UniProtKB/TrEMBL annotation:
A divalent metal cation binds at D17, E18, D109. GO terms for cellular component: cytoplasm; ribonuclease H2 complex. One of its GO terms (molecular function) is RNA-DNA hybrid ribonuclease activity. The keyword Electron transport does not apply. Pfam families: RNase_HII (PF01351). It comes from Winogradskyella wandonensis. Keywords: Cytoplasm, Endonuclease, Hydrolase, Manganese, Metal-binding, Nuclease. Manganese or magnesium. Binds 1 divalent metal ion per monomer in the absence of substrate. May bind a second metal ion after substrate binding. The gene is rnhB. This is Ribonuclease HII. Its cofactor is Mn(2+); Mg(2+). It is found in: Cytoplasm. CDD domains: RNase_HII_bacteria_HII_like (cd07182). Its EC number is 3.1.26.4. One of its GO terms (biological process) is mismatch repair.
Length: 200
């Protein structure tokens, strides 16, 4: 099914989405994208529906052809302080604030958002598989976050963040049990199943 171009029919409609909410380590990352009304790309879809190679192929296309885009990380300490939902919204707001063009309308993947700067907005469940700008934002959020996790993997290779990107895989949990936690782990998350105890 082809993705819809705009929700509001306004030229500067911004789509925003985040990546990494369910991770045990690393930031939550959001992107905001304003696409040209003429933009079309048959490959573009929700980042979760695409392979890593296709996401990396689309990243420079989106960056080159978007009217404006921005990406923001909110890191572990802040996630632990304000909780993951508020951190996700904060990352979206931070991305929107960095756009070089002021959006006239904001469409948001999911069902939770806080108003930004009196700009009208609409939350859309599964918006990343319905609207082009949210799909584009989902790809930028995911690719930028993955690249960040690959970078910090070099510092702590035993957790294999290059592969699991900080998500709670069996391998990641086994490494936490064996080596403990790092400065990149979210201390407010349940890092291990209840049968394990962890000294924080």
């Amino acid at each position: 099914m082809a993705l819809i171009k705009t929700f509001s029919n306004q030229n500067f409609e911004c789509g925003t989405d985040e990546a990494g909410r369910g991770c045990l380590a690393g930031p939550v990352t959001a992107a905001a994208v304003i696409l040209n009304p003429d933009f079309s790309n048959l490959l573009l879809n929700d980042s979760k529906q695409l392979s890593e190679s296709k996401r990396l192929l689309l990243k420079p296309i989106i960056e080159c052809e978007a009217i404006a885009f921005a990406v923001s990380h909110i890191h572990e300490e802040e996630i632990d302080t304000v909780n993951i939902l508020n951190a996700s919204i904060k990352a979206m707001h931070a991305s929107i604030s960095k756009l070089t063009v002021q959006p006239s309308f904001i469409i948001v993947d999911g069902n939770k958002f806080k108003p930004y700067s009196n700009i009208p907005h609409q939350t859309i469940i599964k918006g990343d598989s319905k609207y082009l700008s949210i799909a584009a934002a989902s790809i930028l959020a995911k690719t930028y976050r993955d690249l960040y996790m690959e970078k910090i993997h070099e510092e702590f290779p035993m957790y294999n963040w290059k592969k699991n990107k900080g998500y709670p895989s069996k391998e990641h949990r086994a490494a936490i049990k064996k080596y403990g936690v790092t400065k990149y782990h979210r201390k407010s998350f349940r890092l291990l199943p209840e049968q394990y105890t962890l000294d924080l």
